[in-house]
Amino acid sequence: MRRGLATALRDDFLRVYRENQDDSPYAPTPEQIARRSLKNVALAYLMAIEDEDGVQLAREQFEADHNMTDVRHALTLLTHSSRDELSEPALKAFGEKWAHDPLVMDQWFAIQVSRPQPDVLERVKFLMQHPAFSLKNPNKVRALIGTFAGQNRVNFHRIDGEGYRLLADTVIELNRLNPEIAARLITPLTRWARFDEQRQELMKGELERIRAEELSPNVYEVVEKALA
Description:
This protein is an all-alpha fold. The chain is built from 15 helices and no strands. It has two domains: 1-97; 101-228, Alpha Horseshoe (Zincin-like fold).
């Protein structure tokens, strides 16, 4: 639907983007916020068809580094594109620039694991080994594992069950490190009843595997309630 709208209204989205570009100093005013929001909606539609003008605008917006809202939005669109030559240089540049800032790096993690490409599960595993990630840091766990399991529904619910297995493995390990975070992280698996029969069985299987561990009261309560 987005691609259809973007194709039909391509020139309108391009015009809206250009009309709402603003090089004045950043200010959190209602007018600037509205213009940025409208401009970025238009850019998202252009990138839905990876229109060459849209790709160029996304690159320019990222490289201009005018404000974090625009940079983050452009980075998301480039990362979620189907072209690695767009995503990888932007991710590398952003990661190197903001490596010193833990909160910004949380966004860097989340943007990558919410991308729609089917290789994202392997990316999650790779990023779990990144020097900036630690299972002992709740913010990092939420940004990486929580975003993948809670927001990347297509890839988390892979029919081979590997997304469920990754979450269960993480919950089992976190049960020993931070039971409260583990109990919150498990939520996507507890919603098994909303899905088709095959996925229900896979999700319940992972819940049962978690239950077989020596669990903290926090995690045990969530698992028992989910399987009741």
